[in-house]
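Hi team,

Below is the intake form for Phytocyanin domain-containing protein from Symbiochloris irregularis. Please confirm the fields before the structure is written into the shared record.

FORM ID: S-0412
PROTEIN: Phytocyanin domain-containing protein
ORGANISM: Symbiochloris irregularis
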Amino acid sequence: MALSKQVQIAVVLFSLVAAASALDLPIDWKIPTSGKPYDTTYLQTGDSVTFNWRGFHGVYKITSDRCPATFSDSGPDDLAPSASGGSYTWHATAPGTYYLACQVGDHCKEGMLIEIVVGSGPALAPSAMAPMVPAEAPAASGDSEGSEGEN
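The structure came back. Fields below:
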């Protein structure tokens, strides 16, 4: 059974739109004031996340949602070596669950840890996601807004 020309064109157009709508989610990579890890992020293959930071941080791939006792200074898991200010883009190339953390001092234990779940479906439209920032602890009364330093 042959597909009609209109169906063939629709399939090609859908494929092009899906490929063109790959998501690049920006993440404000800093120590959450709540001390809790970032919320789980859901992506599709072809999507990416870009970690942007001020202060001294990095990006390291770990094997679970538990921070390791130590981080190796080099190797394939050291995705973005520690630096004062920077940016790193991680690409979702295969379905699975991934854990990325900051390897500086106790930053991982202080909440600089994110779980990324990658599915195999079409990418989400970029407008479906907002920039990700860590969960913030409720401000105590009398705290002034905007006085947070660089983490």
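SUMMARY LINE: The chain is about 10% helix and 30% strand.

Thanks, M.
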